[in-house]
């Protein structure tokens, strides 16, 4: 934080040199300290973009009901500057996939996405548009990221409006160029993946389970796992 | 809803005009069902619609069912309503699956679809419902004005609501079946 403040001071001084000539002396100093904030054009643009997201009025299934209640006074997406739902993809910059995408709907969704102007972002809301959800069948695309890029996945079936707002906050940070880290980066949890455990020789959960299965007495009719539960011995 | 004797009278009336139309009647849970020969289903429907004292002029639903281990395999259900008396009657036509014929093992048998006469001329509402049955069960309605898929994409292959159609989707790995796929992460 201290470093940032110092670099801010350095930028202010650079701006003061540009303004010299219009103002002089104490007036100049005061003007610089009170009125000026320097940044890059990109940062200023992204700040504006992140705080004025225009979502698309677009519902796919039951999640759309939760999406509608985002706008109500109870949840009030206007707190994050994203209350202006646009009825045309050409004015929208956020597409919320609220529901399952059937294989017949997928070309339509893709077309809507293609019609949106850059820069544009996509939020997959709910289990269905993220992975197919409970609809593991012939008619539903198993995850909308099979045919279009998705920036934020919000889990839930359907997600609460608060969860969608949390996803929106994550998206805003992504737009500002400071995306949140994954939990492995945040907690420095590298080396706990299954493949990493194999490399270090540490037993994986599945290896432990296989060993337990080899030791456990064979019960053909007890549980499918074959692992004995204490106190529930069946008379063989 | 006609009662059980009324159902028998209806069956008799249909039989009098054309022999061999009604195969069986069934009256269960206050539902009257005529099981008819699929060749004569239009005759049975016409009789029920046009006989003055019957007047089943409204087709409330037309749908199919697949009773896979059973033979005949498919059934088309017609649910008719007489709106003057608020009475319902079901007509059921059982259809064999021509692709399951083991006696003549020609390879073209696999593509043969069960067929039944279309009742769009009698009940215009059957148009979309017959298309839906064709879409999901692959049952062809002879004489339908525009028989093509209605819900699935038009280039879709297969009849997804048949019982031998694979459910689809993607296999999902949970902790309980993780052991069946060793080293799945590679």
Task: Provide structural commentary.
The complex is a heterodimer of chains A (236) and B (186). With 236 residues, chain A is mainly alpha-helical. Chain A has helices at residues 2-19, 25-35, 41-51, 63-69, 106-115, 126-131, 161-175, 183-186, 194-200, 205-215; strands at 94-98, 121-125, 152-154. In chain A, helix 5 (106-115) links the parallel strand 1 and strand 2 (121-125). Chain A is flat, with a radius of gyration of 27 Å. In chain B, 19% of the residues lie in helices and 25% in strands. In chain B, the strands form 2 sheets. Chain B has a 5-stranded mixed sheet with strand order 1-2-5-4-3. In chain B, strands 6-7 form a two-stranded parallel ribbon. In chain B, helix 3 (126-137) links the parallel strand 6 and strand 7. The radius of gyration of chain B is 20 Å and the shape is elongated. The relative contact order of chain B is 0.12. The model of chain B has no long low-confidence stretch (mean pLDDT 85). At the A-B interface, helix 10 of A face loops of B.
- Most extensive chain-chain interface: A-B, 19 and 19 residues
Strand order of the largest sheet of chain A: 1-2-3
What proportion of the residues of chain B form beta strands (DSSP E)? 15-25%
Multimerization state: heterodimer
Q: What ranges of chain A have pLDDT less than 50 throughout 5 or more consecutive residues?
A: 232-236
């Amino acid at each position: 934080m201290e470093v940032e403040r110092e670099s801010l001071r350095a930028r202010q001084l650079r701006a003061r040199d540009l303004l010299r000539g219009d103002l002089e002396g104490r007036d100049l100093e005061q003007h610089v300290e009170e009125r000026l904030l320097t940044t890059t054009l990109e940062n200023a643009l992204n700040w504006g973009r992140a705080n004025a997201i225009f979502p698309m009025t677009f519902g796919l299934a039951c999640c759309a009901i939760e999406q509608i209640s985002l706008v109500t006074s109870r949840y009030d997406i206007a707190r994050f500057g994203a209350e202006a739902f646009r009825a045309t993809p050409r004015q929208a910059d956020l597409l919320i996939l609220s529901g399952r995408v059937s294989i017949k709907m997928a070309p339509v969704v893709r077309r809507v996405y293609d019609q949106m102007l850059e820069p544009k972002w996509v939020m997959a809301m709910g289990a269905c548009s993220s992975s197919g959800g409970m609809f593991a069948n012939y008619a539903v695309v198993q995850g909308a990221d099979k045919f279009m890029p998705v920036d934020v996945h919000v889990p839930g079936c359907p997600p609460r409006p608060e969860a969608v707002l949390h996803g929106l906050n994550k998206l805003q940070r992504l737009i500002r160029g400071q995306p949140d880290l994954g939990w492995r980066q945040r907690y420095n949890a590298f080396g706990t993946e299954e493949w990493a455990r194999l490399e270090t020789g540490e037993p994986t959960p599945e290896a432990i389970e296989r060993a337990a299965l080899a030791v456990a007495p064979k019960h053909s009719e007890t549980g499918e796992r074959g692992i004995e539960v204490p106190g529930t011995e069946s008379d063989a | 809803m006609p009662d059980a004797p009324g159902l028998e009278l209806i069956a008799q009336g249909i039989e009098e005009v054309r022999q061999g139309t009604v195969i069986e009647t069934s009256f269960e849970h206050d539902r009257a069902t005529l099981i008819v020969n699929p060749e004569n289903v239009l005759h049975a429907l016409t009789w029920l619609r046009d006989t003055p004292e019957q007047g089943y002029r409204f087709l409330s639903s037309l749908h199919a069912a697949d009773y896979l281990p059973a033979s005949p395999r498919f059934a088309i259900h017609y649910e008719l309503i007489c709106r003057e008396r608020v009475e319902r009657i079901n007509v059921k036509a059982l259809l064999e699956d021509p692709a399951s014929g083991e006696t003549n093992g020609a390879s073209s048998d696999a593509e043969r679809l069960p067929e039944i006469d279309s009742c769009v001329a009698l009940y215009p509402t059957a148009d979309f419902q017959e298309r839906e049955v064709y879409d999901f069960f692959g049952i062809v309605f002879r004489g339908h004005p525009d028989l093509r898929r209605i819900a699935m994409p038009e280039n879709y292959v297969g009849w997804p609501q048949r019982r031998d159609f694979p459910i689809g989707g993607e296999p999902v790995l949970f902790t309980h079946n993780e052991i069946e796929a060793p080293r799945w992460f590679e």
